[in-house]
Amino acid sequence: MIQDQFELPIGFDLLATAAFALTGALAAIRRHYDVVGVFFLALISGLGGGILRDGIFIQDGPPAALLDARYIQIVTIAAGVGVLLRERVNRFGRVIANIDALGLGAYAVFGTQKSLAAGLSMPAALLIGVLNAAGGGILRDVLTREEPLVFKPGQFYVLVAFLGAVVFVVAGTFFQIAAEPAAFLAIAVTFAVRTLSTSLGWETTPIAVTVTAEK
After folding, report:
1. Cβ distance 83 to 42 under 8 Å?
2. Measuring CA to CA, how many Å separate 159 from each of 15, 27, 208?
3. What is the per-residue pLDDT across 55-72, written as a single tens digit (0 to 9) for each?
4. Domain annotation covers residue 87
5. Do the beta carbons of residue 169 and residue 128 sit within 8 Å?
6. CA-to-CA distance for 19 and 78, rounded, in angstroms?
7. 41 with 28: CB under 8 angstroms?
C-alpha cells in the first residue's frame, strides 16, 4: 500500500481537462452538432473519467470535478475555443497530443491512488485508474453511437494508461518509493511510450479468428 499521497497540481489538472474537452468539442463539430451538443460532448470528454471514478466506483460524495467551479468553466472555454478556432486548431495538434499524453498518465496514477486509498483491491484500483484516464473518451463515443475507439485496433491508449498505473503501483508498493516521485516516474513512462507509439506508428492488432469449414 502506498502510504503518502500524490496531489495532482490544479493548474495541470485544468490544462489536461481542457485538452480532453477540446477533443470532445471537435468531435461534436465534425458531427455537425449545435452549441448544446458541443458543450455536453466537451463536458463528458473532459470530466467523464473522474465522474465514473467518484460517482460509480468510489462513491465518497459528489465527483470532485463538480465541487470546483473551475472545471466546468475550463470545459466551457475549451468548447468555445473549439467552435471559434475549429478550422485552425489542427495547427496545435502536436501541443494537444502532448498535453493529452501527460494527462493520460496523470489521471491513470491519480485514479489508481484514490481507489487504493478508498480500500479497493489492487486489480480494481488499476482498472479504475485506466477508466479515470480513458473513461471520458469511452463515454463520448457511446453518446455519439460509435464503437469506442479504445476497443478497436489502433494506437496504444488504454494499454499506455494501464502501464502508467502499473508503474505507479510497482514503484510505490514493491520498491517503497514515495507517492510523488512514483507518480512522476509513471507519468514520464506513460508520456514516453505514448509519444513513441504515435511517432513510430505502433498499433495494436485485431485478434484473428480462424474459421474452418465443416465437412
Report:
1. no
2. 23, 23, 19
3. 999 988 888 888 999 999
4. yes
5. no
6. 7
7. yes
Q: Is residue 214 part of a domain?
A: no
Q: How is residue 6 written as a grid cell?
A: 500524490
**3-state percent helix, strand, coil for the chain, nearest multiple of 5:** 75, 0, 25
Whether the full predicted model's pTM is greater than 0.85, yes or no, is yes
Distance CA 11, CA 149 (A): 28
**Rounded Cα distance, 115 and 129, in Å:** 8
Distance CA 86, CA 22 (A): 10
C-alpha 96/C-alpha 103 separation (Å) is 10
Q: Say how many domains are in the chain.
A: 1
Q: pLDDT tens, 131-177?
A: 999 999 999 999 988 888 788 888 889 999 999 999 999 999 889 99
Higher local confidence (pLDDT), 194 or 1: 194
Q: What is the overall mean pLDDT for the chain?
A: 89
In a domain, 207, yes or no: no
Closest-CA residue to 120 (of 130, 111, 132): 111
Phi, psi of 68, deg, nearest 5? -115, 115
Say if 123 falls within a structural domain.
yes
Residue-number span of the structural domain to which 66 is assigned: 10-200
